Amino acid sequence: MEKPWIVIPARGGSTGVPRKNVRLLQGEPLIARTIKTALSGTEPGRVVVITDDDEIAEISERFGAVVTREEKTTGKATLDEVMVRTIPFLQSLGAVESDILLTMQPTCPFIKPARIQDALNRFAGGAGSVITVVDDRHLGWVLDEAGNPKPDYAARVNRQQLPPKFKESGAIIGARISDILRTGTRIVQPINLVEVPEGESLDIDTFSDWAVAEHLASRKRILIRTDAAKELGMGHVYRSLAMAYSLARHDLTIVLSEDKPLGAQFFADYPFQVDTVKSDLEFLNYARKKKADLVVLDRLDNVAEFVTLLGGFCKVVTFEDLGDGAEVADMHIADMYENPKVAAEKQLVGMENAVLAPSFESVNRAIEFRENVEEVLVLFGGTDPSNLAVKALQSLEQIDFDGRVTVVRGLGADLIDPKAFNLRLKVLSNVKNMPAVMERADIALSSAGRTITELASLGIPTICMAQNEKELTHTHVTTSNGVLMIGLGRLVSVETLSAHVNELMTNSELRFKLHERGLAATAGRSNDRIVRRILKQIGF
Questions:
Q1: Distance separating alpha carbons of residues 201 and 216, to the nearest angstrom
Q2: Are the C-beta atoms of 407 and 428 separated by less than 8 Å?
Q3: Residue 51: partners with Cβ closer than 8 Å, 6 or more residues away
């Protein structure tokens, strides 16, 4: 039976990244990653490191490799030549000519153990040699005999439409020992190519490569569990979207309930992987199978038993959760209302910890305060279950407001006919760039969700009506944050609302105070800062 031998050549004299084979990558010598991968593909005594360096030799032995020493060289010898010289040493360890010799480079630290098995399967199928490659198709140019540039493609098309063009990744090259001895090379017909994804193909040669390696080595497997529905609103998915953008460099999946299709409809417009589950039990199994490092639960009232089971194999962060699950999570974020049962050191509270749509940070929007109200913005969440937008429009009609009125409706909200109101009314649906719409407004009418923080960040004075009793507990809806809360929306009459709107419109001093307070309350807040704070707090 053919036995696999894995040889890892590792010189000490690298120049692009000095001492790179022993340089720490996420706290571990670079070469250790390749040794660990190799040990998963064969028996310990068959993983051999060839080196001319004392430190590399010591580290390799500590991580379980057999070491053979070579004299320091100029590095000009080919790996084929090095392998031919090394075969007698392998034979002294028990190798025979029918065995397979795989070369693995320590500078390719992200190759997966499954690729070794892929290579061995190719030999079992009759391959003479196996080479790992990555698809490197691009529009390219070469020089002709006269030194003039000419394209190496037939037609200028998108990269995906070009024929496959493979580049050796350097991670694995192998052949049978007998063939290497006979030909002096590891490239023996029939050649089999094992294509690897881009992440596994990295070959570290420069500090730019090292920066990519640090990114790849520090990526986490993160699941964001959230939902949207008419009765639940859209706030959870909007915040989850913002979190997804801040965590996008990681291996990220958004997980939704199968019986709440509004969430899937929302995320269909965005570039994130989305899956669905039928129950918490199915999600537990899903997270375990995914080997999640972190689960973000952005939904209401998680149960302690569920969070404890998740916490058995990953970190758990909850948002705006009054359930007992927040008490056993690793971290709880409560920008709108504090959970009094969660320890202070495990809870981030207040408007400064609100995660907003990235568009609120991408442009520095200096909102100029105007003495007169020229435009009113009406927005009551993604679903507006109490239909408060209609009441707001009726109040503007009642005071004969003749300025511009913009209503923003979410995916789950009932449609509004602009012709049904005697107003200069524009209705927008499912807005993607909300701050560009908000910044035109002089005042806003809103419910008590995260929109309050968005409006405050732009200094827009706001009259707030709660959609339900729970929203009445939201602690960020205060005059100190630029907001006038007038109560539970369904109990507020059109006449009462009209009086409040008229007072805010005619009292420029009050509006200016609310404008300044909103800006002050949100100064310095940023999604990246909040996410860094969360990850640091949970030990990432």
A1: 11
A2: yes
A3: 9, 10, 11, 12, 57, 60, 67, 69, 70
Q: Which residue has the tokens 């302690």?
A: 304
Instruction: For 287-328, give the DSSP string.
Output: HHHHT-SEEEEESS---HHHHHHHHTTSEEEEES--STHHHH
Taking residue 365's Cβ as centre, other Cβ atoms within 10 Å add up to: 15
Picking from 501, 492, 494, the residue whose alpha carbon sits closest to that of residue 466 is 492
Q: Hey, what's the torsion of the CAs at 345, 350, 351, 354, to 10 degrees? A: 50
CB within 8 A of 427, min separation 6: which ones? 406, 407, 409, 415, 416, 418
> What is the structure's pLDDT at 382?
83
CB-based burial, 145-179: b 16+ in 10 Å, e otherwise = eeeeeeeeeeeeeeeeebeeeeeebbbbbbbbbeb
Which distant-in-sequence residues (6+ apart) come within 8 Å of 316 by Cβ?
294, 295, 297, 307, 310, 329, 330, 331
Average pLDDT over residues 87-101: 96
Cβ-contact 7, 102 below 8 angstroms: yes
Distance CA 142, CA 189 (A): 28
Q: Are 370 and 442 in contact (CB under 8 A)?
A: yes
Range 208-211, long-range pairs (CB < 8 A, 24+ positions): 209/16, 209/17, 210/17, 210/20, 210/23, 210/25
Measured in Å, how far apart are the chain's first and last C-alpha atoms?
45
| 367-398 tens-digit pLDDT | 889 999 999 999 998 889 999 999 999 999 99
How big is the chain by its Cα radius of gyration, in Å? Answer: 31
Element (H, E) at 429: strand 424-429
Q: In sequence order, what are the residues at sequence separation of 6 or more whose Cβ sits closer than 8 angstroms to the Cβ of residue 340?
A: none
Distance CA 218, CA 209 (A): 14
Q: Give residue for tokens 């997270």.
A: 287
* Cα(254)–Cα(270) distance, integer angstroms: 11
Q: Which two tokens stand for residue 69?
A: 């020493």
What is residue 351's three-state secondary structure?
helix
The overall average pLDDT reported for the chain is 93
Closest CA relative to residue 170, chosen from 80, 103, 264, 125: 103
The stretch 409-431 carries a mean pLDDT of 92
Tell me which amino acid residue 297 is: L
Tokens 């996410």 locate to 531
> Taking a C-beta distance cutoff of 8 angstroms, is the pair 289, 310 a contact?
no
